[in-house]
Amino acid sequence: MKKGDHLFLVDGSGFIFRAFHALPPLTRKSDGLPVGAVAGFCNMLWKLLTDARDTSVGVTPTHFAVVFDYSSKTFRKELYDAYKANRSAPPEELVPQFGLIREATRAFNLPCIEKEGFEADDIIATYSRQAEAVGADVTIISSDKDLMQLVTPNVHMYDSMKDKQIGIPDVIEKWGVPPEKMIDLQALTGDSTDNVPGIPGIGPKTAAQLLDEYGNLDALLARADEIKQVKRRENIVANADLARLSRTLVTLRTDVSLDVPLDQLVLENQNGPLLIGFLKTMEFNTLTRRVAEACGCDASAIEPAPVKIEWGPAAHGPDLEIGELQAEDGAATVASPVAGPAFASAALPSGPTPADLVKARADAFHGKTIDIGDYQTIRDLPTLEVWIAAARESGLVAFDTETTSLDPMLADLVGFSLAIADNTHSAGTTEIRAAYVPLAHKTGVGDLLGGGHADGQIPADAALTALKTLLEDPSVLKVGQNLKYDYLLMKRHGIVIESFDDTMLISYVLEAGRGNHGMDALSERWLGHTPIAYKDVAGSGKSSVTFDLIDIDKATAYAAEDADVTLRLWMVLKPRLAADGLTKVYERLERPLIPVLARMEERGITVDRQILSRLSGELAQKAAAFESEIYELAGERFNIGSPKQLGDILFGKMGLPGGSKTKTGQWSTSAQVLEDLAAAGVELPRKIVDWRQLTKLKSTYTDALPGYVHPQTKRVHTCYSLASTTTGRLSSSEPNLQNIPVRTAEGRKIRTAFISTPGHRLVSADYSQIELRVLAHVADIPQLRQAFADGIDIHAMTASEMFGVPVEGMPAEVRRRAKAINFGIIYGISAFGLANQLGIERSEAGEYIKKYFERFPGIKDYMESTKAFARENGYVETIFGRRAHYPEIRSSNPQVRAFNERAAINAPIQGSAADIIRRAMIKVEPALADAGFGERVRMLLQVHDELIFEVEDDAVADAMPVIVSVMEHAAMPAISMRVPLKVDARAATNWDEAH
DNA sequence: CCCCAACCGTA
DNA sequence: GTACGGTTGGGGG
């Protein structure tokens, strides 16, 4: 072990105790063996191992050990016979679990440590001090106050149940003394649970105050006669020896002779088959499934490991030395009460690799016929309950809703479908059955009395009550396709889906940039199957009907097939995450965002229709004025909004010099072309540009937005798409609230219509220059890093470096050019593009770029290495490992290739920034809840580098620092950025002023 | 009725 | 030079 390493020490006995008491008792299904504590222990360990690598603890362990008490016979008992004498014997049902928990530890491939005569705490203390001595960091997984004496700047404790780290300040806050005085404090207070006597009448508060005053226990005892309070003085004088004895008892030994040296505690990789074998034996189906998914194993191909259970009073069993477990020859036999060959031996069972599972699943599902005639229609509650029970037993179910609208805020539930895998064959063959549950179908439309409730449907409230038990059961994985839709819809019915996967998001993580991730496309790609087209059941265009008017038999085929296909896609796609090393991206950047975005969409934002209506009127008047002037100048009336007609007027009739052609050969009438003509002194083009701006604002915003106000909530609910960009950004639609005008004064007026509810403010918090900061980080550019560290004007710095102009008194034009170059770099610069942007010659732009690369050679290196990586792999990666694919990067067409190269250069920058704000969004709600804000602060919108919240007036001042802090540290602890992130936040009653 | 091109709003 | 979505006009089926 060396400096920089990180040792995790789990207080195994503490874990057992907490697992046993925190959870309802659980017995093994097949033989009634109590395994509740084993289950709790395994779940806690699994959570710790997966979380520890990222957010919860904030550090990645290099070394790891689970430490147990050996028995109750310790040196302390020798010292003081009454030590822990009042401890009652462990509960009967816990006894057989002690051995199992040690087996569990080994199944997790973790060192399992104990030592005769010592408590776990002494071993932990010894390892801690040894690790500290070589400069390593230590995290002790426990919240036991007995261990707090070990806390130093390098040694932390971590309460995994409360997800809370305990450092020196936390000890002081809790006990009133720093960690090094904890021993004296415990000596004074004693400990009733361990029967440590202490001094009667002295509790933690008094003890802390005394230690503060006298410094330490010895000084206190020596000067006890100075204590003013009579009773207290007498107690202390009379019991000084007891206090000294107590001190010995609570002082942890740091000199335990360790059987397993520190260096052997290296954290090994998870051995999937080993762990799964054990978990299957324990019949922990949910955890088995999770582990199998995480490590890409096919659980059905792994046999339960033989584990001998010993009933009876033996709490510990024969001596077990960890050294034997780690014997290199793998031949060590361990006579543990529960040892089975698969666990006692260092020869680990071999199982299918993630790649094997990927292939097996692809073979099993691609091209397999899907019989849509086999689907069942569930028309009564008992049948539904049977299906739900089967789904819960299986632990895996695909779920899909059918509704009357694509907008989840307006949709009415019409029915839902379920698909279950009957995975009975250990060979891995899987039978899938699916069913549709109609709830609100109506009788035929042709019917004169049409529109009535159709017969043979379960009452919706009864069906939803049954469904709720399934969807909210965390031990059943719900699989959906575009699950955010169903999540939001079910949330509107009071059901909060717990434990879920989304095949659309899995596909997006695997192959962003390679086609879309809709179900039909995925089905074609992975299953070789064309699902029934929606328009084939609902019709299209004017003759289309809503789903409630579709015949139930036809609806069953369509809806059940969707669930069926979704489950098949999950089978095929999910193992690919592990095989491609993308599980973390999916689990940390994608899946958690589903509930976050669903809540944001459900909340919506208030838009003042009066303001918009007034603006519409103003825009109409101004546009009309321009129209008459335009007709006057053109000499005729025409459709100004038609680029074709406008081109004919300008370049045909008026004979103006055409600037450029579009790719279809038409004259371009772009704003750029019109501006150029205006600059040359022609009057008409300027008016066209102004007219276009006004009509754009009117048609896209002031006229359209009121139509999105929800009839019930009176708010506007945008829809965020998680899977529609190549880079990892979100997109927003219906309405798009990510392109509300801001650049012109006229446009900004539209933002004043986005308002907070009375008694609240809108708080806008936006990242400053996040993409340039990401660039400075990934390309590691010293000048950029320095400039950001110093908080100086980044564009002025660039200009100064390039042109040798001092920042003081720099002409605006010089800075403007540098700014354009900085943006150009992010976009994968070309001389052509930069020349266009700045209105300069290509050759001059080329000179700028050359100069820039001379000053910042690291940027050139970054661009070249990114292009090379993309050419080699067909994708690029963000700093968090998200992939963006560019399948055309090797195109023989130079234009196509160059375009893909620029996009590939841009993607890690734009995508890393997108990942950072995603992390902020996932973290900010829990952080605000922890800070006690609850629903007083509600996140409403995301605009790529900006988050908008609605905050109760009284909470604004206190909530803003929390928001800013979460955003600025959002990359941590996964990535420690080489540049600081900066967030600006403002509060106002409308979006314009808050921004 | 559907789709595409052109244009333009945002980061 | 990157990434999106919405509106309009206009052509083709």
TrEMBL record:
Q: Which family does it belong to?
A: Belongs to the DNA polymerase type-A family.
Gene Ontology molecular function: DNA-directed DNA polymerase activity
**Enzyme class label:** transferase
Q: How does it assemble?
A: Single-chain monomer with multiple functions.
What sequence ranges are listed for the domain 3'-5' exonuclease?
Answer: 375-578
Domain DNA-directed DNA polymerase family A palm as annotated: residue spans: 747-955
Concerning SMART domains, the annotation shows: 35EXOc, 53EXOc, EXOIII, HhH2, POLAc
Q: Where is the 5'-3' exonuclease domain?
A: 5-268
TM regions (residue ranges): none
Tell me what reaction this enzyme catalyses. Answer: DNA(n) + a 2'-deoxyribonucleoside 5'-triphosphate = DNA(n+1) + diphosphate
**InterPro entries per the record?**
3'-5'_exonuclease_dom (IPR002562), 5-3_exonucl_a-hlix_arch_N (IPR020046), 5-3_exonuclease (IPR002421), 5-3_exonuclease_C_sf (IPR036279), DNA-dir_DNA_pol_A_CS (IPR019760), DNA-dir_DNA_pol_A_palm_dom (IPR001098), DNA/RNA_pol_sf (IPR043502), DNA_polI_H3TH (IPR020045)
Q: Which Gene3D superfamilies match?
A: 3.30.70.370, 5' to 3' exonuclease, C-terminal subdomain, 5'-nuclease, Ribonuclease H-like superfamily/Ribonuclease H, Taq DNA Polymerase, Chain T, domain 4
Task: State the name under which the record lists this protein.
Answer: DNA polymerase I
Q: What does this protein do?
A: In addition to polymerase activity, this DNA polymerase exhibits 3'-5' and 5'-3' exonuclease activity.
Q: Which domain of life is it from?
A: Bacteria
